[in-house]
Amino acid sequence: MSTDPAPSTAQRLVGDIAPKLADLTDTVLFGDVWARPELARRDRSLVTVAALVTNGSTEQLVSHLRLARQNGLTEAELVEAITHLAFYSGWPRAMSAITVAKRVFAEDKDEKG
Length: 113
Hints:
mainly alpha, AhpD-like, 73% helix
């Protein structure tokens, strides 16, 4: 029986091609930056979602919307943040983000049954 911990999300996604990037993601980003006490994880999630929407980073938005929900943000709060960002990051980015959010929220509801 193996006692190795399960691979992290970063290790599963890019560990085969970029092991150092996966390691930095695990140890620095999530192991240090996300653990700092100056901002609650909920606030970090909101800031991260806002940055991803503003940058048009819809691939990473999927997992960070789920993490934001785990960290206490509601679907309504996330939708409102994306709506608000339409006026600061641009309409097309907000429309792309809300399409991703709609899909993620529907998938999560389907999984819960």
